[in-house]
## 1
Amino acid sequence: MKNLKKYLLLSAISLAIVSCSNDDGSSAANNVTLEFANTFKEKTIVLGGATSTSATVNVSAEGQTHHFSELKYVISNIRLVKNDGNEIPYNANDLDKGATVINQAKPETLNYVLNNIPKGEYKQIKFGLGVRSDLNTLDEVRFPVFYAAAGANDTEMMWEWGTGYRFTKIEGFYESDNKEMSIHTGSTIEDGDDGKQKQGVDAYRDVTLNLPENAVVGSLSPKIVIKADFDKLLSGKSNTIKLSTGTGSDDNATPNIHTAVQMVKFVDNLGGNGTSDISGMFSVVSVK
Amino acid sequence: MEVIKRKIIFIAVMLLISCSSDDYEDIVLDNFEIELVVPSYFPQWNPAALNNKPTKYGVQLGEKLFTDKRLSKDNTISCSSCHIRAYAYADDNTQAIGIQQRAGLRNTPPIQNLLFMKFYNWDGSKLSLENQPIVPIITHEEMDSSILEVIQKIKNDISYRVLFQKAFGDESITPERIYKSIAQYEYTLISADSKYDRVMNNKEKFTSQETYGYSIFTQKCAGCHSGALFTDQSFRNIGFPVNHNSNEAGRARITGDSKDYMSFRVPSLRNIEYTAPYGSFGQFTSLKEVLDYFDAGVLYSDNLDTIFKNNSNRIVLSEEEKEALIQFMKTLSDTRFISK
């Protein structure tokens, strides 16, 4: 009898503790939404075909008009940095739960919700444009969700011959005669089995952005609005690029961008060069 | 007494353990490493092969997968649809043809002596053969499938389950095992029994024309087509007619180095008689055409190979020399390899 009482008491106490911690749970973590605003300078990009009249037209530093018909890129390896410098990775090693394809043609992809972010004040966000080399293996068994999302017919974010993902896929038109532009980026890195041989280009870029004001997570679930200014594609911090159409190695507008030769210039403009520029085309416009 | 009892129990337990592991050992011992006959003058193995040595059942499994049309989305083509033995595991199309007659970017490469190659594919995009099979499986112009789709199709096939068990110790079918076994099979495709090899081993003699061809070859070709595989495994732009497909940049699409633009791996000349048409996208229908092109002069570009740049962009060859060269190249044919 005495024992029974003890047990009951113990259970009651533990229940109380459990429920307490549960209560704490609801205010200890909350969602953070990343909203991607794809623009040409301040104007939101409207996509359109060759002769579209509604598509947003941009002019590059070299004076070339251009507009996009397709605009996609991969965000992964997201980390939120607390005021005290502590970095909170968000499923950074899991493409299924921590990576997404932003597709300007699909509004629902422009908001990416990070679930269950620990309570705290965050001053900075870091993420990757593209996929880190160690995860960029088209491993369908490990990451079936992301593999399917990237490989879907209306996504086409796979680079079969490089057995990796496309990191950026931009299709569009330039100059008054609407010549095609097609800019695809992705890594071609490969290591030999003995680790001695290495080759290829790493098109993954780690981006670091300071928040204009702290994002406070707890009872609130803030939204971080990230601007991706595609004006920088041709008129970036790293390179001023003039598009040219043709079949030579310097002709960069048509998808010989698949060739890593011209690709890196676009990659550095979009995601930064990793040294003097760690933000590329990205900036945080507001925290709501 | 107590000690003896314990000992007996201990021995009994040991016996039981060894009994059960005997069954397992049987399988493992049965799946022996295949002894590959390789001439001493062949290059070293690719390091990846040292970690994936061909075994009896690994190779059997690899060959079964290699010839299985279920690797393609609509079950119409297998690896062996393009890699045909009679053509030294290449084919006779200018560019590879995948499901639904989709044309690929490049000429199907022969599969031979891959054990000794440092790079795979014309642009050397892969450094390990185990990383290669996924490419044709997922490529739209080739099999247009996915590895899970393949596994789904074969997983209930009892003959596969038996082979996976024998090759890898249990029935589980994983992508890695598929890639490894296909690579193991390919490693065993060694061509080293041509007339040239027999001449080198003093078992046969060149005809006078072949001897003449060999001397021309040594002077004018062996700078790139060197060593036992008749390739130095380098990448060069030799001014062949250019494939204007916007996906083509040769090795540059891997390295991002403009010096590699439209450069391709120097092809092995072994079994070259069987692998027409020639060039990265089948620009030449015959060896004679290739030699005529070299003689007439190749396309100039900034990164044209220095051997051509230093010789007015050509390899000067008389008709007599061309004929002799072709006869010599035919001594690199391995009839047993293409018909075994």
## 2
Amino acid sequence: MRGSFFKILIIALIIAALGVLSIYSSTYQKEGTQWQDIYKRQLLWLAIGLAFYFFTSKLNYRKLWDANYLIYGTALFFLLLVFGLGVIRLGAQRWLKIAWFNFQPSEFAKLAIIIFLARYFSGKSADDVSLSSGKFGIFRGIILPLIFVAVPMLLIIEQPDLGSGLMLMLVFVGLLYLTNVRLKYIFILLFTLILPLPFFWHFLHDYQKQRLLVFLNPNVDPLGAGYTVIQSRIAIGSGTFFGRGWLHGSQSQLYFLPESHTDFIFATFSEQWGFLGSLFLVLLYYLIIRQGFIIAQRTQDAFGRLLAYGISLLLALQVFINIAMNMGLAPVVGLPLPLMSYGGSSVLVTFIALGILVNIDRTRNVF
Amino acid sequence: MERKNIISVIVILMFIALVLGLFNLEIIQGPKFRRLSDSNCIRLISQFGSRGNILDRNGQVIVDNTISYDVMILPQDLEDVNQVLALISRLIGVPAQELKKTFKNNFLSSSVPVTVAANIDLKSAILLGEHKIDQPAIIVVPKPLRHYPYGPLASHVIGYVNEIDRWRLTKLEDYGYKTKDIVGFGGVEEKYDYYLRQEEGGLSVEVNHRGKFTRVLGFEPPKNGKDVSLTLDLRIQKIAEEAMQGRKGSAILMDPYTGEILAMANFPNFNPSVFIGKRTRLIAGLFNDPDAPLVNRAVASSYPPASVFKIVLAAAGLELKKINTSTTFVCQGSTMVGARKYSCWETHGPQDIIQAIAHSCDVFFYKTGLLVGAQNIHDYALKLGLGHPAGFDLSGETSGFIPSPLWRKLNKFQNWYDGDTANLSIGQGDCLVSPLQAVILAAVFANRGYLVSPYIVKNVGGLDLSARRKKFSPVAFKKTTFDIVDSGLREVVSDDKGTANAMAALPVKVAGKTGTAQVPRGQTHAWFVGYFPYDKPKYAVCVFLEHGGPGHAAAVTAQQIIENMNKQGLI
């Protein structure tokens, strides 16, 4: 019980430490103190994140059940706020400027939606204390939760942040699959989602279309949209087995690689630490996610179990999509690598999520 | 399977996919990406070494290098191209329009300096350097450049340098030659280019994504090319070229024992520096000139040897015992060969072999030739170094040509007649000999016994090449043959009626043979081959004047050369 707290803490801290090293390596040569000090800010965020980790791991997760609608509503509120007042950076309106930091509500919305879904599908029927989700028809099983997911998702996609939005959809489908909702309904959902995809093409922003085209063939536009993927692949590939060594990566340290401290931090890391280091990092992520799944599997409480699954799935998908996109195996979307990428919101949300996981493990025996 | 297990399997598969992707990128394709990464961020800034000098046998410089300056502009530091080009144009006096054209043609990328004007002089370079502060884009780079202190002197031996051409590039790519390399063309510059050429050194620097310098990764000092020492003696070369007085033809002086070429003068010649200044009009003029100024006539061209060939006849007749010192033929101004009359250039009366050589009597040699036979004449000519290349160390050597009945039959399907033998006997007809072959022929009678392989490069970068030379092939003639021919050659000069009697007055005893080659059109070619001093030969000489008139003219030129050499105490 106490084991999972330390296991997760240690793995998360190793990953975060590697992240800080990579952030430092990619920014220490840049001009201006605000760049050179960026790793210090990350350290600060990590400290705050750790505090949240301790806090949420102590906070009974059942309280989230109660606060469910409040959390959901707050997330929605912030998303709407971003829509109106957000700071535009890198061509997207994703950030809210609060005091001295930029806050990214979509990161919190991801967690809020998972909590909401876990709550929604773990309701018990009054007659036999079994999960009511097994008896859900298509409306209660699919359509209603879809609406709840779709509202924040559309707001996120509209920012525009197609990556986070679609990832939410994937988490939704995954969670749905883990509830007792009938498979038939899930397939209906998948079909209705996939069939109109060609039609959605027209609603995509130009840059999103371009990114998808570039994903299919990065050499379409090597100095424009394809540039990042090409440079990122070169960075990762040039690491070969042992890597170039810390602070010796030419791709990331000479700024051939854009966003080398945020979305493309994996390429920065991999260039310097090589296949060996990357394997180690991927293994760490796997261990932390596996820990999440183990916690979910041994939790009896339906809400806790679904919540643990949702968090693990969210982490797994973010890690997978981000690394795959670094390697050019997935289209470029604005998804950070949890715990590694620079960014306060992502760090905070990840630590909060991990804290909730630990707390689920800690309190599961109470029921 | 339970749903949760399926999800776990999917997650595991996702991570396996990541590891496989990493394995593909970093292990399988790693080396490729490592190269791409390096080429992303490493730039080479070249520094030039200087090409090896070419020296004469005494270490005197024939060709060396001077420093010239190239004006380059770095596009990434450029604010206004036209303004900078206008400034450069004003300072170096080249129209801005032209500069703009070169800039456009040479532009590669914003981080690579572009050469806009090459080879400007020191004064302009300093003027431009003063504008470095307000125009940081201007870079003035010193570059060693070929310098020819004697202008066109020995130009055919030296050759010239120019930008590498397509044909040479495809052949030499494996040896590290690149486009736009400056390589040698013709002469020593081409043949010994591999040793002469400098190795470009330079800085390898790291640049960031904007192409801006970040740090120096390494420095490779440029290596200068190796010096090449020739066997030429600059003093003799100058004397020879002066004596030629710009007339078309060649003059060669060679050490008859070693085959070292001491002078090799060719006209018309060219000034190799026109290739340095890229003076297109002058260069085109050189290539289009019908007189072919770029051809090294001494080595690459062959001509009818005329009476010079009589030396071969004399030797062959004596060796084959067809004639001896007591053989006398009467010259009546002509003789009948078959049904045709073959005339002599004069009526000489009774002639023995020595007189015949001295007076260059055609009738004597017609008859000797008929006695010896065409095939034998051909064989002896080859023994004496004619009709095949001598293995000279400059390229483009001609093999000359000595006809024979067999060749005539095989290649032209024609019979060989006695008339042809008669023609061959006086070095006319299809017979062709290069001046270099003629001087080798003379050397055989100076050293009395072997055929030398002439050479012109003494050592390369201090390494003596003489050990690697071809062994001289012996010419196993009887001593009496040499004695008789040599005294004949001496009589040419010393006899009152000798064809080279003009040289009798020289304080140096000269032996030799003149030749006057009939040509289909224009004046005759003039030959003089010989050696001196007669008693103890130090030099073999050949003077050839293309359309230069009678052999006497060549003899007079040779006389001037010898006289001047004697004056300078070189004999």
